[in-house]
Amino acid sequence: MRERMRLAGAFAAKAFARRAATPYHIVRSMVIAPPERLRIAPPDIRTADPTVADEIYAGYFSFAGKTMQSHGGSPFRLTAPSPAWRRALAGFSWLRHLRAADKALAQANARALVEDFLSLKKLGPDDPAMEPAVVARRMLSFFSQSPALLDGAEADFYDAFMVSLAQGARVLWRALATGQAQGGDRLFCAIALAEFAVCADTGRKIAPQVSRTLSLELDRQILPDGGHVSRNPQVAVDLLLDLLPLRQVLAARGLQTPAALMRAMDRMMPTLRMMQHGDGSLGLFNGMGATELDRVANVLANEDTRGAPPLKAPYFGYHRLSGRDALVLVDAGPSPPLEFSRCAHAGCLSFEFSIGVERIVVNCGAPAPPHDDLRDVARATAAHSTLVVDDRSSARIGPKDAGWAAGLVTEGPRHVEAERRDAPEAMGLTLSHDGYARDYGLIHARELTLSTDGDTLSGVDRLLAAEGGGRAGSEPAFAVRFHLHPRVRAAPLGETLALALPTGETVLFAAEGAVPEIEDSIFFAGPAGARKCAQIVLRGKAAPGAELRWTFKRV
């Protein structure tokens, strides 16, 4: 309760400061005038699909798992099936598909749709289209697609387009100055403002302050080892897709690239590779869903130097064990700061295990927008390959009706320890966290060891007594869960379990101290949506001194 009151007080103080500063920043934002011309257009390095242009021309708009048909009318006047659908539509990232079609008809369609949006009367403050992150995405989309949109455009459209850029820049200026933009959205908004400062001829008036704001956010959000403070691997992909074009336009215009930008990008690339499995997908930790492999590839194609992936990112809170073609990714960090915890999971000490291109042990991952109702389930400790006590998560996540705390991690492991043991015959980790100390008086300790030949992954899970911790009224149970990728088939084989991989290989799972059971699970992060899968479960009594040993061995 004391912690919740402290957090509530901090939020109230920030809200008061925002209200007090708003009039000043409204006046200051008026210095941002509509451009007369754009000096340069940044590239859009996201993959485009020309077939989407045909769907849009036919009036079908598919976003966030929902499809709406405009029936010849304006898609912007449709009743959106979800806020996520409205955000995607109003963000205009889909314009790249129309440009990729490379047809006069697609170009005319793109301009007509943008003109349709610009003709709307003032949108209400509760419209998702006016959220700072959506305004930022719209500006970035408009800048990157401006050559096709403005080529041969009539004067009225040209003027309205320029006015919309200035209006968007004012919205972002105020959102950053007053604190309306929070968490990762602050850096995203700063990137869009920086593009305005570089691309628009009127941007020079705000360029110095925008550069400072961008540098401050980069230094605040990008950790010394290249991870993002949210601990979500997806955030790095999204940021780099926008930071790379910004770096290119700065270089093309002969402008000095902020040192903070260069530092951040140099650190982010190797850490992103560290989080990759053999199939290119990213580890499913802290809000990571299905990996869009083309986006990751487009980002990493711009890496200037490429060596072996790092084995640890201690500030980011992840470690990597590798042996031949086997790989283990481990979450060894505490919950992120409150402001950046809205997508964080209670998966401390969870791991993922892959051999070659086949993922074997996974976390369930974050569901796609159509399954937002399952997001809370996916964030629970039980949805991760780790130990869970009494079926309760190791972190507390604010429920939807919790007001300011809704969706935030208000309490989690405070002390997370990780010690590497790298030797010629094996790589290992000794880990622990105190997420169960307050309620149960228990520390979860885990050891992981991967042989250098990649044939054996062994682990030990222990429960230790926590100093000064609480005690449950009765002795609860615990479970150690190993969620299996949907492509893995598990079957009993005597006292062990045989895991059949699609490659034809077999991995045997054995345990000491408990009988392994096969139960149903769900994999949220499939490219085509949620899929059924299996999980291995080991159970025992949650008391100090409890210990389970287990092994995955390739045969």
From TrEMBL:
GO terms for molecular function: lyase activity. Its main location: other. It is found in: Cell envelope. Pfam families: Hepar_II_III_C. Residues 306-551 form the Heparinase II/III-like C-terminal domain. One of its GO terms (cellular component) is cell envelope. This is Heparinase.
